[in-house]
Amino acid sequence: METTYHMDPEAFRRHAHELVDWIIDYQERRSHELPVLSKARPGEIRSRLPAAPPTHGESFEAMLRDVDEILLPGITHWQSPNFFAFFPANSSYPSVLGELLSAGLGVQGMLWATSPACTELETHVLDWVVGMLDLPRRFLSTGPGGGVIQDSASSATLCALLAARERDTGFATNDRGVEQPLVAYASSQAHSSVEKAVGIAGIGKDNLRLIEVDETFAMRADRLEERIREDRERGFIPFFVCATVGTTSSNAIDPVPGIGALCQDQGIWLHVDAAMAGTAALCPEFRFLNEGLERADSYCFNPHKWMFTNFDCDCFYVADRAALIRSLSILPEYLKNRATESGAVIDYRDWQIPLGRRFRALKLWFVIRHYGLNGLRAHVRRHVELAQAFRGWVEASESFELASPAPLNLVCFRHRDGDEVNRAILDRLNRSGELYLTHTVLDDRFTLRFCVGQTHTELDHVAAAWERIRETADAVRNELQS
Amino acid sequence: METTYHMDPEAFRRHAHELVDWIIDYQERRSHELPVLSKARPGEIRSRLPAAPPTHGESFEAMLRDVDEILLPGITHWQSPNFFAFFPANSSYPSVLGELLSAGLGVQGMLWATSPACTELETHVLDWVVGMLDLPRRFLSTGPGGGVIQDSASSATLCALLAARERDTGFATNDRGVEQPLVAYASSQAHSSVEKAVGIAGIGKDNLRLIEVDETFAMRADRLEERIREDRERGFIPFFVCATVGTTSSNAIDPVPGIGALCQDQGIWLHVDAAMAGTAALCPEFRFLNEGLERADSYCFNPHKWMFTNFDCDCFYVADRAALIRSLSILPEYLKNRATESGAVIDYRDWQIPLGRRFRALKLWFVIRHYGLNGLRAHVRRHVELAQAFRGWVEASESFELASPAPLNLVCFRHRDGDEVNRAILDRLNRSGELYLTHTVLDDRFTLRFCVGQTHTELDHVAAAWERIRETADAVRNELQS
Fold this sequence. Notes:
The structure is a homodimer.
Chain A: H1 9-32, H2 44-47, H3 60-71, H4 93-105, H5 116-133, E1 146-150, H6 153-168, H7 173-176, E2 182-187, H8 192-200, E3 208-211, H9 221-233, E4 237-244, H10 256-266, E5 269-273, E6 298-301, H11 303-306, E7 314-318, H12 321-328, H13 338-342, H14 361-396, E8 400-402, E9 410-415, H15 419-432, E10 438-442, E11 445-451, H16 459-481
Parallel strand pairs in A: 2-3, 2-4, 4-5, 5-6
Antiparallel strand pairs in A: 1-7, 6-7, 8-9, 9-11, 10-11
Helix pairs in contact in A: 4-14, 5-14, 6-8, 6-12, 14-16, 15-16
């Protein structure tokens, strides 16, 4: 027996238990002690790390101490109940357990054959989710469609675009490249990932039409129709529309029924991106979010945003998996196996950009089983109630105004005194470390975003945030006036 | 206080401790009790899962019991010391701790500003790795280059191709689409991800030239040069070459010095894919792997293959980060922030396909610190020694022969009695559950692959495997003769 440098099982047990205790302790500290937004300056964290890696192994105690002393000051606490920035990337203990199990098993799910349970649990749980959100049955794996877990909505959108590109170019783009003048469509408020995907796929950003929006920041279906007609007249081939249910900027909801009818009529692939808002369809009262979805060719939402499942976990569905697989499948000799050749199994490497994949479904399965449908609904419903309470305070305020409809858990608002004041409020709030908000621009005006979705955000956090926002606004105005 | 369905901290502590114990127990069982290759039939695992998700939450005990009873029979044990298939996707306890910490922190690293430590630790550790592998200094972040963690070599290759596409089309592809007849090159033995990337990027697979290989299955630089000249004469624009250091099929090593000189002369982007083999450069005696790398524009290798770091963790380097960033950057209003605008920070969302990213560097940092450079070297060196011992047994055998050079940890070999016998040997070995091998085709002949790289593989596992292979060959020959 030669020297081993591996951590022995007893040491792992001890350190893992220590780390679990550390995580629980961290969850307490990030609620009460630590500033939400890191105050680190560029290069500050790095400057404290040793220039060279160690020649000899170090103790776990030393590593955990450095996490505390060096890294923590450079962490922005996304799981803080006072985090109202961007979209949530919420998490939960059952999900952390799922990640731990996935790491402990260390299996590859690139092919069904490389770990059948990895593929079959994922297919099964994604079928569950179709029922949980009341999505169209065409997305079930038991028909010609099916679901897969992607790392993010960006990747889901890219995969949807690639499948559409193949379908509309007679499955030739993979062979000959993009030869036809393809054009894609999304609203001017769509996520930046649509533009990124169009660039990656070689379509060209000039061939993405950003359709104007109405006063609710939702895509105007009439303008989409006009633009498609104009493009056809000019010799372009419209092939892909991305509609958004809950834009990143303001949670605007594109009119999917009208867009879907148009796409169906025109033979254009419709992808619906419901990254954050989609989760709300767990609750029957929010199922208006699904209207028109029966005409979508693909759909995605992110349990890693607002369904208590750690990043990364995006659920991506297609109505016809054949187009997706044709756009991404390659079968070299060293991956050939009987199960694949039988056609009886799903090989998820053909549903995504990378080849390898870890046991992705475990954490989502743990989350769904731990909370149950009722538990998930209760927490999502509460987040919406909290955001609606905040919205009510804004509406009742003399100093602030709503900047857009706030149908769910995101409230866009601003101080009536203009951009300079709003910028100053945001900056001062975030520097306080007590809460974290981000901004957008709506109607050419600097606008504050308040998004409720972190796992442990409750009424007292939202009320304290509102109080702090009002105090800060008063202080900013006094200073600017003096 | 309203009803909460969250797992409380004490329950999490108890269940996490149980799960840690379960993982340690699993590591023992997968070494001794469990068949390496799952015996599940298509649909078998899924058929045992309940048709509908639970309405009410379930206990963690029920979940863990189902892992044991339903999932484990459908798991192929990639961490078994008797796993010699494909490439390793090895793992270690320090890495599992890193994954657990990343999940417990639950932060987003899409922008420097969203958690500075997340970005700075990654940049720093990737600079460490440049020194550890003695990679060219042009890949250090302190100059115009730098490194980033991708999910896989597939994604790294795609990003390299996109950066090359932008550079060689005057940074216009993102805007106008792929208008010029671009062509890419790789050897006929290159990984399937090159073909996949060419398809995704809209170049078209017909515009990928698969260059013939020599008797060691390495790319022929003379044929590459001829092909580039022919393509230029025909009006094509050669823009990208992917050289492989350690092909998936047989660990063949393309002649990077000659290919690099050619690419430099011709102004073609050279990407070097060293997915598994790259790790060996930890040891000075294997640094021949890096020859010519100073001329590469980009490089990747996977610590998640053979450096004891859980999947997913690919280290991707570019010599000029500007081209990469220009090909992937988009900055919508809701992501604008002072740090980004200052230009003083790295925003890794501009270095990858997805927008979001978790705290990726933690597990790699833990692995490097736990093992130290000496520990990593010792284990990699031992894996090579074990593979070389196996190679010696093959060479000394009358029944088997080597099918290709075996410079490192992968031995390609076959029984002298032809494809039918080799297929039967492979099938019977894998069905035994005692070990797991996969195959390839070399010189049009069915070839067995024996790859040593799992964390806990030692001499007794390799010796037992060889014994079992010989016994199985004898049994197969007896049956086929009778």
